[in-house]
Amino acid sequence: MNWRARLLALDGMMPGMDDTGGLAWTTLADAPEDAELVFLGFDDGRACFAAVPPQGDAGPRLANPAVWQAMAALSPDDLAIYGGARSLVDWHARHRYCPNCGGNTKLAKGGWQRNCESCGAPHFPRTDPVTIMLVEHDGKLLLGRGLGWPEGRYSTLAGFVEPGESIEEAVAREVLEETGVRVSNVTYVASQPWPFPSQLMLGCHGYGDNEDITLDTTELADAGWYSREDVGAALEGNGPFIAPPPQAIANHLLRWWMER
Length: 260
Known about the structure:
The chain folds into two domains: 2-94, no CATH class; 128-259, Alpha-Beta Complex (Nucleoside Triphosphate Pyrophosphohydrolase), CATH 3.90.79.10. The protein contains five helices and 15 strands. It has helices at residues 65-73, 76-93, 167-179, 228-235, 249-259, and strands at 6-8, 10-11, 14-15, 25-26, 37-43, 46-51, 105-108, 113-116, 122-123, 128-137, 140-146, 157-160, 183-194, 199-208, 220-227. It is globular, with a radius of gyration of 21 Å. The relative contact order is 0.13. InterPro entries: NAD-cap_RNA_hydrolase_NudC, NADH_PPase-like_N, NudC-like_C, Nudix_hydrolase, NUDIX_hydrolase-like_dom_sf, NUDIX_hydrolase_CS, NUDIX_hydrolase_dom, Znr_NADH_PPase. Belongs to the Nudix hydrolase family. NudC subfamily. Its cofactor is Mg(2+); Zn(2+). Residues 125-249 form the Nudix hydrolase domain.
């Protein structure tokens, strides 16, 4: 029933917030005229939707301070809803034309598919696998600072899995390319969806063969080795670097390493 349905309030790609600091919801009557609606699921018996905006967001997500502020303010449940909805409507907004023939595509299956109206090709929302890794040597961790990051912010290294690559191979290649450190004995630790815009973060741990760093300055601003004391102090907010935010898997990986 439409009266039971609700619409996620979005300002472009940013979430609307209610008086309690949670996600704001409206009704389907508030959807823009002729907007495509994506079905997000049910909450307490109510169907939940989000409207596809006129344009997607092609800019770097983490370069937008407002995104970080929203992520920090939302509860884990609301952040999961917002992240999934944002990723989905962004994909729809940027895939209105078929990559096979260039024809118009149309939303299908509640927003979990688009079909080409010309050649009939189906298209599905994508998820890109990304390795994010703790690299350890002699009781220290290899951490890096990305280009354009705030001064003092360091995190675990990360990189996209390339076609034909295993997770373990991607870890070893990315670390070697970015720092010149060879990695072995790679094991999986945990994963986290990161829908900004469409990543699945694959947390891993491996061992570096030495501490000699040859930095790829097109990928990283800096990299270095940090002791257990350094990491622990950073997680408490008074270390030699600024730790990743609590909602990021990098923070959880550092805490996992500290607790081993």
